[in-house]
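Continuing the batch. This is chain 6 of the set; chains 1 through 5 are on the previous pages. Same settings as before, nothing changed between runs. Recording input and output for traceability.
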Amino acid sequence: MHNKLKEIRLKNHYTQKYMAEKLKISKPFYSFLENDKRILTYDMAIKIAKIFNTKPDRLFYEEHVNRVD
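Output for chain 6:
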């Protein structure tokens, strides 16, 4: 899941510092999110998704949304 976050950040040519500033969090905290050292809350997922103009489910949880049981 978090690899996708780094992938989309790099695809958009955003730095971790840029993301942290947009989210109003520290760069180390953002790095922890991206490297799966902190739990990504749904509220934070919403904020991150807004930066990329998408929905959090599509960005982070797509494998669960599209799963067929």
